[in-house]
Amino acid sequence: MEILETIYDEIIGFLGIAQAWEILQSGDFSAFRTYDGIVALIYPLIPFLVLLELTMGLLYKKPQTKVYKVNFLIYIFNRFVGRFISIAMITWIIGLLQPIAPFQTSLTWYWFIYGYIVWEFGHFLYHYWGHKVRLFWCLHSTHHAPEDMNLSVTYAHFFLEGPYADTIRTTVCILLGVQPELLFLIMFIDGTWGAFIHVGENLIKDARFGIVGKYILTPSHHRVHHARNPLYMDTNFCNLLNIWDRVFGTYQEEQKEIKIEYGITRQMDSGNFLDVYFGEIVALAKDVVKAPGIVNKIKYIFMPPGWSHLGKHETAKLVREQYFKEMDGKAKVVKPT
């Protein structure tokens, strides 16, 4: 019976309906007008869309079974090994850094806009380093391994990526005066949107969202980010506001004539949990062991993926530069602006 109760609790936890169910049982429906009540209604949306997307995939006979299987295993594994690490890290950073912040924001609309721009900058930094520092890529590559895009990909993360990401984002926000209450509100909105932008073509085929896509990151932008095509590699690092991608020249729109190829460039078995989860760590360890001298060993850890002590680099930056050279004069390619 205890096992059944645990399974029941895990299902309820995944669906995110526990809090809403408690409010319904209490009969106090006015609670849905509070912040906690609104959160209780919004939180189940992504799990619901995951199940709907899976159902639509079965109907369209495009179930992406391999992706769902591995991502489900990742979700279960992470539930056991990393449940509370990110929360503890956020709490510790707030307590450590808030006293030395030069000023404090408040819960007003203008500070909310400021806070979101600051949060997005922190997200950009974490995400950019996750692609440009090989050690951090080992944490992030699990999220890029799936060779199809659907909402289950939002659960595909190495268990240490959350603490790493929240350390960077929370540090930036707290040092720049974003108060904890405002930070948690932004984290909830950003987390919900960040999950939604992984929606696949079984639910939304063309996800550019028209003029809206000029101002925010859409699922189309994030599909580009997950692509291994040379044009698309290492672009669109933001989550909702595309301000910082434009500032730092990493913004790239999806082009209809260039079909997105999902996954990572390393040869791997995307249906193998161990390869998806630990493959990049194993590959890094092998390179470090084989590298001559301590300097080269350290460089393999901190240089971008694709760096080689032999000088035969295959980093995303060089691959894209070579692509643009080859395409120059042959086809119209929209470069990042």
Automatic annotation (TrEMBL):
Key word Lipid metabolism present = yes
Report the main location listed first in the record. Answer: membrane
* InterPro entries linked: Fatty_acid_hydroxylase, Sterol_desaturase/TMEM195
The molecular function terms in GO held by this entry are: oxidoreductase activity
Key words, A-Z: Lipid metabolism, Membrane, Oxidoreductase, Transmembrane, Transmembrane helix
Q: What class of enzyme is it?
A: oxidoreductase
Domain Fatty acid hydroxylase residue range list:
113-250
Domain of life, per lineage = Bacteria
* UniProt keyword annotation of Lipid metabolism present: yes
Q: Which residues cross the membrane?
A: 38-60, 72-97, 109-129
Give the EC number: 1.-.-.-
Protein's membrane topology: Multi-pass membrane protein
- Compartments, as annotated in UniProt: Endomembrane system
Cite the PANTHER family for this sequence. ALKYLGLYCEROL MONOOXYGENASE, STEROL DESATURASE-RELATED PROTEIN
Q: What is this protein called?
A: Sterol desaturase family protein
- Organism per entry: Maribacter chungangensis
